[in-house]
Request: fold
Amino acid sequence: MSPESTRNTETSQEKMEPAGLLPSISADDSRQVVIIAASLVLGTSLAAIVLNLVHTEHGKIILGVAMAFVIASMFLAYRGILQPARIISPSVAFLVLTFFLVDGDGVHDASITAYAAVVVLAGLLLGETGALIFGGLTTLSLFVIVYAEYFGVAALQTPYSGKFDLIDVNSIWFLHLATSVIIYTLVRRLSRLVAEARDREKEFKRANQDLSVLRDSLQVQVGNRTESLEAQNIELQAASRVANAILVAPDVSKLLKTSAELIASEFGYDYASIFLLNEKKDRAILQAVSSVDGKKMLEEHYELPADEESVVGFVSKNKRPRIVFNQGPDAILFDNPYLSMMQSEMTLPLISHDEILGVLDIQTKESYAFAQSNVAIFQALANQLALTLQNTRLAEEARINLAELELVIAEQSVSVWSKHLEQKSY
Reply:
């Protein structure tokens, strides 16, 4: 299958993927997330009944009806009807919690601690729009209930009516509003990160398919070509092994170190290094090396300006590969006391989405070791490394955002419970 047909197939599949949830989640994953969320709501409702947390008959009836709706949403999700199923779970959770607040102790009821969870659930199932809508609904609900209780509306009379001042009234709904805004912001950021990661994953797959097509093409012709073509086939296999190895790197530092070492060992070169550009794109900073001499450079925080005074600087500035040899006018480019024995150098840009991230620099003691025929394979490998680098950075950023979201929810729950216990002590 050609790359064009493969990409057309991917495009048609993307059109079939459902909207909603966090962006770019597949249909199967979407169905699974909806069912898990509904199961959590159903399990919580069952626990409330089993533990006798609902004390009135009409409350039990309301909870039973809500459980029926949740079960219906699970059935719809199982049948692939996802949009109604996404809406049911947060809606049911919001309505049931609001009922128990009105029917129980108002804003002093323990049910208030789960209001933030409704916003998180809506953000998970409906994305940033869901977090915005349900954040507004829950905040408005708390605002109405707390002021109705404060002013003594008959339907919301509780043992705590008249026992808290206006500052307490405003702090209850305002704290929830602040929590909802934080949750919305984090869900929005997480949605963007997921969408960007999916886009880069698709580009990575296309680059990998291009590499596979190139490899297959070379393998078909290997019997009829010269030793030079056989050498290219060996390099292609080494590139595939390197590409597969770097996919499992847990973080950026390990990814760069593993890549430099594998490129040198798999292709039999004396030295490989990776430079990354700073934010201004005016300096290339050494990040990973494969040799002992190179590690001395790493310890000294070796870096080069992005100009044409060095091969690394030239490639960083012009975004195109370059091959040089320690002969003639290019010999001055080998004036490096750490790598004085090197005779050939090939440097390639690490480019993703038309943005240069850094360069891959390969050197060897063999004279005239590189040719233009090597560039295609190594540039494909460099492109794959750049995509993997971007994906790894996004994954690390996504993990940080998730940790921040969990911390905010935990802190808000503690704050609400503390407020509740203080009111109970009056």
In short: Confidence is low (pLDDT under 50) at residues 1-19. DSSP finds eleven helices and six strands in the chain. The radius of gyration is 30 Å.
